[in-house]
Specification:
The complex is a heterodimer.
Chain A lengths: L2 E3 L4 E5 L4 E3 L2 E3 L6 E6 L6 E5 L10 E2 L10 E3 L8 E9 L6 E4 L3 E6 L1
Parallel strand pairs in A: 2-11
Antiparallel strand pairs in A: 1-4, 3-8, 5-6, 5-9, 7-8, 9-10, 9-11
Chain B lengths: L4 E3 L2 E4 L5 E6 L6 E7 L5 E8 L2 E5 L7 E4 L6 E5 L8 E8 L7 E3 L3 E5 L1
Parallel strand pairs in B: 2-11
Antiparallel strand pairs in B: 1-3, 3-8, 4-5, 4-9, 5-6, 7-8, 9-10, 9-11
Classes of the chains: A mainly beta, B mainly beta.
Chain lengths: 111, 114
């Protein structure tokens, strides 16, 4: 069964410290993965997707098929990074498919 | 920047009542979705919609749920007879292409069933 696991409900770091938000997935085919972010009182928005291999707001994520992981990393956290982060897996089904989300990790960056 | 818009932001309803949640997707998008998030739990897929019909629905989306695109702009989710366990945040999303392209989410409607 397709599944996304984010083991940490809450991650608290100090400003300037490195951050790693963990995401593991279960998928039989070739996965497509995203990270979505939700800042306080705002909507879910796409942060990055693995196929584009881009860095957004200093965040990167590498797909590791051996470990079935897609961890989100940033070398130096900023206070404005405080938000809920959701890892999501594309599940193709029907004519368009849908996203399977993890439970999310709340990142709190302290001054 | 175009946005997905949802109304109302918060709806309180009595158990057994019908509710309609409204969404205005981004105008050139062709694929539409509803997701929900019960407090403290993960965001869950409900239904996808394309070309004026349901593409796929989850097991959550039972006979009490229906979706409609009554005109060229609105996309609605109707719950016929609400239950306490329907209390959740409901998110509408739209995308230009099939999933795998970026899905844009609305700000959500918080539904409280009392």
């Amino acid at each position: 069964a397709q599944r996304v696991t984010q083991p940490e409900k809450l991650l608290s770091v100090f400003k300037g410290a490195p951050v790693e938000l963990k995401c593991n997935y279960s998928y039989s085919g070739s996965p497509e993965l995203f990270w979505y972010v939700q800042y306080s009182r705002q909507r879910l928005q796409l942060l990055l997707r693995h196929i584009s291999r881009e860095s957004i707001k200093g965040f990167t994520a590498d797909l590791n098929k051996g470990e079935t992981s897609f961890h989100l990393k940033k070398p130096f956290a900023q206070e404005e990074d405080s938000a809920m982060y959701y890892c999501a897996l594309v599940r193709y089904g029907g004519s368009q498919g849908n996203l399977i989300f993890g439970k999310g990790t709340k990142l709190s960056v302290k001054p | 920047e175009p946005e997905v818009t949802q109304t109302p932001s918060h709806q309180v309803t009595q158990m057994g009542q019908e509710v309609i949640l409204r969404c205005v997707p981004i105008s050139n998008h062709l694929y539409f979705y509803w997701y929900r998030q019960i407090l403290g739990q993960k965001v869950e897929f409900l239904v996808s919609f394309y070309n004026n019909e349901i593409s796929e629905k989850s097991e959550i989306f039972d006979d009490q749920f229906s979706v409609e695109r009554p005109d060229g702009s609105n996309f609605t989710l109707k719950i016929r007879s609400t239950k306490l366990e329907d209390s959740a945040m409901y998110f509408c999303a739209s995308s230009e292409g099939r999933i795998g392209t970026e899905a844009f989410f609305g700000q959500g409607t918080r539904l409280t069933v009392v």
